[in-house]
Amino acid sequence: MTDVPPSSPPSSYLRYLPAIFTRQDAPFLGNYLKVFEKLLTGVADNPLNGRKGIQELLAAEVIGNLFYPRFSFLFPVNTTDFIPPIAGPNQTQILARFNSYIGVEPPADPLAGHGAGSVSPADWQSAFTLWLSGFLAWLAGWIDLVPTGGWSLDKTRMVIAQMPALYRLRGTPQGMSFLINLLLDLPMSIPGVVISNGDNQPGTGLVTVTVSNPKPAGIQLTDQMTRGLTFVLADRVDTTTPLLGGYAPWLFDVQVCLPSAANPDFVPYAAGISQVATLWQQLRQLLDTARPASSHYRLTLHPSVQLRAYPPWDNQPAVLGQTTLLGS
Fold first, then answer.
1. Of residues 217, 212, 222, 211, the one with CA closest to residue 240
2. Where are the domains of the chain?
3. pLDDT, tens digit, for every residue of 180-192?
4. How do residues 313-323 score in pLDDT, each as one tens digit?
5. Can you list the positions of beta strands (E) in 163-281?
6. Radius of gyration for the alpha carbons in the chain, expressed in angstroms and rounded
7. Which of 76, 91, 4, 93 is nearest to 43 (CA)?
8. Looking at the chain, which runs of residues are DSSP E strands?
């Protein structure tokens, strides 16, 4: 145990012992009891690195909130955000407070003192962020979720908090839509230009994804006494003909809506088209994984065809896949 400075007061637990143990010339017991006071009650002293005690831990409800990624014990009581963000101007302060409950030590530099060109030791914030990422990955495993490497801490916390509720909507168009928006950060903004009266103005547009079931086709009845025309039923998945019961079994209609659907004068830049192409691939991977067994999906792009010169260079020809989009 590190020696306690002379100015540090003895443990308050001495008041529970006979007065003979409070002698000023024998401060060992008063300092030794601070170990137990730190563990059981919590004292803000430097020799014990400012770690919080069990009483402070319970008072802040850290143990219960540690398994709910909102981490409400880190934020003011009047915070009403569903998941208050850690990232931001107060990130260092928030992580330092969190670490006061956990106490993750920064790793030592193995090359320290063995060469002039040794790397600088890792700071506590990097070490604690690595611990927190691992903890969130472990917590996500309890709900059968595998965080991707590209998610931030706040993104991972948001997904973990919402996934249990989304499982209740699994297999429905609404649940699939919520899941897609949550995991792929939709709606997505893409850069482009807006053509108005011959003038090209840079702007942004939103790409959205909607999920629905096919519109029931119904059963056809006619007044013609002709075989095959009077009463028509279908016994296979074919949206062009009526279906028995009027529903296509387990089919999700997933439509990617481009900004030009609402504003025909908007034309995306090449970077925006690349974003849409990446989203298309991510959607296929997600739908293949998230759709219920024995279900199908139909992925379409709306509007389906865009063949226009690439502004503001109107003399440049349209190139499929680079300056144009072709959907199905």
1. 217
2. 12-59, 84-106+122-168, 182-213+248-326
3. 999 999 999 999 9
4. 455 556 655 55
5. 188-196, 199-212, 220-221, 231-232, 251-257, 266-268
6. 31
7. 4
8. 188-196, 199-212, 220-221, 231-232, 251-257, 266-268, 296-302, 305-306, 325-326
Query: Cα–Cα distance between 196 and 17 in angstroms, integer?
Result: 86
Q: How many CA atoms lie within 13 A of 166 on its CB side?
A: 21
Closest CA to 327 of 175, 231, 209: 209
Helices 153-167 + 173-184 axis angle, to 10 = 170
The span from the CA of 86 to the CA of 151, in Å, is 13
pTM of the model: 0.67
Q: Give the C-alpha separation, 300 to 209, whole Å.
A: 10
Nearest to 2 by CA among 46, 52, 51: 46
- Select from 237, 234, 240 the least CA-distant residue to 249: 237
H/E element, 272: helix 270-290
- Phi/psi for 243 (5° steps) reads -115, 150
Contact 42, 13 (CB under 8 A): no
Single out the residue of 103, 88, 6 nearest to residue 48, CA to CA: 103
User: Residue 83 corresponds to which tokens in the numbers above?
Assistant: 């998941």
Instruction: Tell me the backbone φ, ψ of residue 70, rounded to 5 degrees.
Output: -70, -30
Centre a 10 Å sphere on the Cβ of residue 168 and count the other Cβ atoms it contains: 8
pLDDT in tens, 107-164: 776 665 555 544 444 688 889 999 999 999 999 999 888 888 789 999 999 999 999 9
DSSP-assigned letters across all residues of 35-70: HHHHHHT----GGGTT---HHHHHHTTHHHHHTSTT
* Separation between Cα atoms, residue 14 and residue 32, nearest integer Å: 10
Q: Which two tokens stand for residue 100?
A: 């006061």
Q: Answer yes or no: are the C-beta atoms of 303 and 225 closer than 8 Å.
A: no
